[in-house]
Amino acid sequence: MSMIGGKPVLYSYWRSSCSWRVRIAMNLKEIQYNIKPVSLIKAGGEQHSNEYREVNPMEQVPALHIDGITLVESLNIMNYLEETRPQRPLLPHDVVKRAKVREVCEVIASGIQPLQNLVVLIYVGEEKKNEWAQHWINRGFRAIERLLSVCAGKYCVGDEITLADCCLIPQVFNARRFHVDLRPFPIILRIDRELENHPAFRAAHPSNQPDCPPEAVK
Amino acid sequence: MSMIGGKPVLYSYWRSSCSWRVRIAMNLKEIQYNIKPVSLIKAGGEQHSNEYREVNPMEQVPALHIDGITLVESLNIMNYLEETRPQRPLLPHDVVKRAKVREVCEVIASGIQPLQNLVVLIYVGEEKKNEWAQHWINRGFRAIERLLSVCAGKYCVGDEITLADCCLIPQVFNARRFHVDLRPFPIILRIDRELENHPAFRAAHPSNQPDCPPEAVK
């Protein structure tokens, strides 16, 4: 439950986009960590176990055990890393650019992902789940494409990788999973291509996780 | 569309909990501002107009015009205010306490509110909307009650009002609107009682907004 060999422990699921955001941030900041996989599907979901509820009362991943404390909620974890590990900053120095980064993060973290989350899709039902997920991803991506048309450079905000990119790339993966037509979002697609082979992003990819089932590896 | 008399302009709807969060933060920091009401119900929702989409591509409130720029997403707006208006801080100085504040904010802003948002309830349908909203509010409040059992003092995190309180109080109002039984959440209820008569919270209350319909005023 605590540190393994002194390293931070990330409770993670290979395909969870929220876990993936944190994995990218840890990799960019070159923070060594161990992964403790939490299967969201095995036996109705290990995240609902009494043991894991003590780690994260929201019964979801990620959670990070670091510096003797346990943190939950992905943006919160990334903000904590930013405040305690200033190497390779993931927020710009300029307050307006910081706000632009946070806008993209929050549209994804509050406006898209919660609505196409596994636990919500189970509640929506098998029959309707694809249409439901597509609706909310399209709505959010239309907004993000407009935001990026003003603030994007090589990446989401200017030419440095930020927390916005850590959130965007996993959300693009989810969009493809739900067969969203991405052609109306050329800036999003360009940034996705820009980052797909970046080592920190590659290492965080679902197919490179210890709990990725062999049949899912591309 | 821009500043009225040099003051910041908040695009707000009286009953929107996300607008309400920002109103509380503005009031606590004693920032003078003008409200531009956006009716979420009139003519199918003024937030979907071409004019407003230029303000906020997510077609929702709040948005804040301040310092010559327009900001969207409530937590982002509050973070910008915190970084540019340090008077009456709403984040603790200590990094661990800051993380505890952000955990509560993010559980509400990503884990509860997006799922009981008006636009989602329209999609869910009239018949199922109460049960749906109750389900997600109960789930989130169970988690918040556990988080607060560790970090609460007089308020959500310790004895100073923080961004967590700005998010919690409007969410409690929503819970009541959807007839959630709040008795299992004694810490949440205590903090709500503690803050209900605070001037900054009172002035931000839906019933004290210029666009509150007369029949809704308590």
Summarize the structure.
The first copy, chain A, has 218 residues and is of the alpha+beta class. Chain A has helices at 17-28, 50-55, 74-84, 95-112, 118-124, 129-151, 163-177, 186-195, 199-204; strands spanning 9-12, 34-37, 63-66, 69-72.
Biggest sheet strand order of chain A reads 2-1-3-4
Could you give a short account of the major beta sheet of chain A?
Answer: 4 strands, mixed
Identify the CATH class of the largest domain in chain A. Mainly Alpha
Share in β-strands of chain A: 5-15%
GO molecular function (chains A, B): glutathione transferase activity; maleylacetoacetate isomerase activity
Catalytic activity (chains A, B): RX + glutathione = an S-substituted glutathione + a halide anion + H(+); 4-maleylacetoacetate = 4-fumarylacetoacetate
Pathway (chains A, B): Amino-acid degradation; L-phenylalanine degradation; acetoacetate and fumarate from L-phenylalanine: step 5/6
InterPro entries (chains A, B): Glutathione-S-Trfase_C-like, Glutathione-S-Trfase_C_sf, Glutathione_S-Trfase, Glutathione_S-Trfase_N, GST_C, GST_Zeta, GST_Zeta_C, GST_Zeta_N
Structure description:
The structure is a homodimer of 218-residue chains. With 218 residues, the first copy, chain A, is an alpha+beta fold. Chain A has 2 domains: 9-88, Glutaredoxin (3-Layer(aba) Sandwich); 95-201, Glutathione S-transferase Yfyf (Class Pi), Chain A, domain 2 (Up-down Bundle). The first copy, chain A, contains 9 helices and 4 strands, in the order E-H-E-H-E-E-H-H-H-H-H-H-H. A 4-stranded mixed beta sheet of chain A has the order 2-1-3-4, covered by helices on one side. In chain A, helix 1 runs parallel beside helix 3 (74-84), helix 4 runs antiparallel to helix 6 (129-151) and helix 7 (163-177) crosses helix 8 (186-195). Chain A is globular, with a radius of gyration of 17 Å. The mean pLDDT of chain A is 95. The A-B interface holds A 56-59, 67, 69, 71-76, 79-80, 83-84, 95-96, 98-99, 102-103, 105-107, 109-111, 113-115, 120, 123, 132, 135, 139-140, 142-144, 146-147 and B 56-59, 67, 69, 71-76, 79-80, 83-84, 95-96, 98-99, 102-103, 105-107, 109-111, 113-115, 120, 123, 132, 135, 139-140, 142-144, 146-147. Chains A, B: This is Glutathione S-transferase zeta 1. Chains A, B: Belongs to the GST superfamily. Zeta family.
